[in-house]
Amino acid sequence: MLLAMITRFAATLEIKRRRLVASAVAGVFLLIAMIFAVSAGWLWLAGMVGAIGANLICAAILAVTGGIILLVGRPRRAAPIAAAPVASTSLVGEIMAAFVAGSQLGRTMRR
Questions:
Q1: CB of 40 within 8 A of CB of 24?
Q2: Distance (Å) of CA 23 to CA 14, 34, 58, 105
């Protein structure tokens, strides 16, 4: 049973690792694509408004985009979490009794 749990955990870990690597590689390619898109937009704008105007427009667009991403990605205030229900006293008592019995059994077996 323990071996099955370890095997399942290892398989889940491998899947998550593959997804992480794939996401990282995809992120790099998307970043490169964004760089080329900004470069193409700058070249197009430079022909229309000049180099300084193209730089200012690209900077403004990237700053607004970054601000929006920061606003969307900021943590929201979570609603207070309700307290977890307390286990019934009989269950807690049974667990404590089992712990004490196991502890006493362990002490007697060591001697």
A1: no
A2: 14, 16, 27, 52
Contacts 24+ apart (CB under 8 A), 55-62: 62/38
Place of tokens 């006493």: 104
Provide the pLDDT for residue 56: 92
Name residue 101's amino acid.
A
7 token code pair: 């095997």
Neighbours of 80 (CB within 10 A): 6
Domain ranges for the chain, please list them.
8-73
pLDDT per residue as tens digits for the range 17-44: 999 999 999 999 999 999 999 999 999 9
45 close to 53: Cβ distance less than 8 angstroms: yes
Amino acid at the residue 56 = L
Total residues found in the chain within this entry: 111
- Give the predicted TM-score (pTM) of the model: 0.52
Task: Report residue 69: phi and psi, to 5°.
Answer: -65, -40
User: Looking up tokens 């370890």, which residue turns up?
Assistant: 6
